[in-house]
């Protein structure tokens, strides 16, 4: 998936000559914590955040101050064609709340925020569909992963999503396969996986 698949667009923007007090009201009304700042041509020139506004309030003279006096210039940006992995890495590493998304002319086409990450994750996991999850400990990914998927296919299980964790499981060197299935009773499928010699992790274990 790419940034264009998860970003919020269109996005509300502001201009450098806007009064901070007015922008503060707009952000509160829209329940956003940052706004891209654009020039007359719509090109990105900065970003103003709730933190920036809070610091400006504490400094005094807030009612007369403009966005330009408090915004962050040259913010880190994303392109619509960037991968979601790249966007997530930047958000985590830099601890950003959001990043503007710009096109080849540096015009703002969207914004990618932490809540967009949650929407993407929900979509990837298929959480909006009714179903249940089965966890399988995979000690030898080269053969056990194929065995688990083959067993699920043989049982005619309808897979909503399947993710192999990057973290080790309880066993030495083991990883966990998280499978979300379109069923409310995963019991029979768990039994089939055990019969195939796979280690099924019980709920709450």
Number of domains: 2
Fraction of residues in helix: 25-40%
Order of helices and strands: HHEEHEHEEHEHEEHE
Within CATH, the superfamily of the largest domain carries the name: CBS-domain
Task: Report how far the terminal alpha carbons are from each other.
Answer: 32 Å
- Second rung of CATH, namely the architecture of the largest domain: Roll
Structural class: alpha+beta
Question: Could you describe the 3D structure shown?
Answer:
The chain has a 4-stranded antiparallel β-sheet with strand order 7-8-6-9, covered by helices on one side. A 3-stranded antiparallel β-sheet has the order 1-2-3. With 205 residues, it is of the alpha+beta class. The model has no long low-confidence stretch (mean pLDDT 90). The protein contains 7 helices and 9 strands; from the N terminus they run ααββαβαββαβαββαβ. It folds into 2 domains: 120 residues, CBS-domain (Roll); 75 residues, 2-Layer Sandwich (Alpha-Beta Plaits).
């Amino acid at each position: 998936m790419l940034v264009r698949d998860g970003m919020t667009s269109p996005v509300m923007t502001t201009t450098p000559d806007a009064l901070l007090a007015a922008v503060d009201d707009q952000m509160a009304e829209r329940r956003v914590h940052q706004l891209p700042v654009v020039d007359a041509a719509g090109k990105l020139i900065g970003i103003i955040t709730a933190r920036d506004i809070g610091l400006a309030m504490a400094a005094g003279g807030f009612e007369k101050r403009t966005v330009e006096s408090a915004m962050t210039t040259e913010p880190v940006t994303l392109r619509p064609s960037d991968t979601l992995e790249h966007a997530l890495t930047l958000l985590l590493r830099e601890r950003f709340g959001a990043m503007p998304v710009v096109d080849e002319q540096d015009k703002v086409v969207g914004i990618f925020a932490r809540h967009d990450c949650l929407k993407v994750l929900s979509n990837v996991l298929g959480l909006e569909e009714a179903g249940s999850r089965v966890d399988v400990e995979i000690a030898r990914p080269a053969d056990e992963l194929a065995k688990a998927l083959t067993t699920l296919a043989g049982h005619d299980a309808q897979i909503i999503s399947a993710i192999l964790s990057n973290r080790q499981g309880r066993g030495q060197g083991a990883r966990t396969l998280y499978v979300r299935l379109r069923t409310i009773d995963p019991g029979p499928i768990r039994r089939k996986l055990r019969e195939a010699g796979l280690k099924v992790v019980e709920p709450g274990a």
